Amino acid sequence: MSTPVPVSNETVAQLCPACGLCCNGVLFGDVELRRGDDAKLLTSVGLELFRKGSRQAFTQPCACFDGKLCRIYADRPKRCATFECGLLKRVQDGEMKPALALRKIAETRRQADRVLQLLRSLGDVNETLPLNKRYAAVSAQPIDLSADKAEVERRGELMLAVAKLMELLERDFLK
Ligand code: SF4
Ligand code: SF4
Q: How many Å apart are CA 6 and CA 163, to the nearest integer?
């Protein structure tokens, strides 16, 4: 078996500033620390750690994400430093052109924006929570079929938009 080639900084520089989906709460709800991560340093740069089972973790959207880049790139936790999404790997391996990967990123970001827009229109405005928690909170609200027809329709649109987003994430980023 051949040794996998680590993703190069060049590939990261090509794709990641246009994406951010692994830092902004769309792909992941939280990030667990690993042995060797400096919890003190991470707290000092603004990450709020919480206990998740036997590990410490921080929630996403990450407080160190500036909308395009990681503010603590050199000191980022190990889980972040070793994560490579499917698109990165495929571009690195020459299986996909960067231009196509960028189109897929743009498509997925549009879909994530659509989901966020629907969540806000349904009253969820907590931008500090990851998308999965926000969707769960809205879905847990009982549906009043006698309510505003537009709201009932938006709930249906939200379900479809989330299903489409999950499909894109599974297909392009998690495999
Ligand atoms: S999901 Fe992939 S392309 Fe997007 S920022 Fe993360 S590593 Fe980069
Ligand atoms: S520490 Fe950096 S790489 Fe890790 S989730 Fe936050 S912004 Fe992303």
A: 31
β-bridge mates for residue 57, sequence order? 32, 50
Query: From the DSSP assignment, how many helices (H) and strands (E) are in the chain?
Result: 7, 3
Maximum Cα interatomic distance, the chain, rounded to a whole number of Å: 61
Give phi and psi for 152, each to the nearest 5: -60, -40
Distance separating alpha carbons of residues 121 and 67, to the nearest angstrom: 22
Spatial contact of 86 and 175, defined as CB atoms under 8 Å apart? yes
For ligand 2, the distance from its centroid to the CA atom of residue 62, given in whole angstroms, is: 6
Q: Which residue is closest in CA terms to ligand 1's atom 6?
A: 22
In angstroms, the CA 169 to CA 162 distance is 10
One-letter amino acid at 84 equals E
* φ, ψ at 57 (rounded to 5°): -150, 165
The atom of ligand 1 lying closest to the CA of 83 is 7
**Å from CA of 152 to ligand 1 middle:** 34
pTM of this prediction exceeds 0.85: yes
pLDDT tens track for 26-85: 999 999 999 999 999 999 999 999 999 999 999 999 999 999 999 999 999 999 999 999
- Report d(CA 2, CA 4) in Å as an integer: 6
Cα–Cα distance for residue pair 110/123, rounded to 1 Å: 20
DSSP 70: B
